[in-house]
Amino acid sequence: MLKKYIVPILAMLAFLSLTSFSQDGKPTLEEEKAGITQLKEAVSKLSVGMTWDEVVRQLGEPKFVTHASAYIPFYLFAGGQSLTLNFDGQNKLFAAYNKDRFDLLLKEYTAKVTNISVLVDGEDVLFSNPILTINGKIYLSVEELNGVLPVYVTFNEVMQQLEFITTDTPITIGFTTKTMQAPINKIPPDYITTIVPITREKKIKA
Known about the structure:
single chain, alpha+beta, Beta-lactamase Inhibitory Protein, Chain:B, domain 1, 14 strands
């Protein structure tokens, strides 16, 4: 009877012993960055169809297993990041889930259109693009946040990166570095030549 409780208890103890957090119980910025980097490096070594022996050669032995009736390897990284591996009946890897249950081996995800409302400071905001859900997570068109939140969003084609500029983030326009003020959505992207990286402390909380 107690057997079914042993694995969950061991999992919790291992999680607590292997994960370090700041005094408020949340991972620090450095821990989160380190964990995400470790997670990405681990996933980059995996591919669908690998055997368990091949996985161990790449990632090492798992921290522990997550289910008593089946061998489901669980890897734990800094900042609470984790990776759970699933194997089929032929001992072939077919899924690698992160802590939010996203299969990181998938190249495509199925999105569903949702009819939820979005409110900013109590006011309903309308989006021309559909609001989507993937694995229960909500996704908005970030470009439509321009003029809605105090943030300017642009996609850097050269660097292939999405860039957010907050109203208190210094940017270089020509030869002058300025701190932009609202309404930041009126700034033409062509005038922005250099963007100072945004720290976590300045991120927009959704």
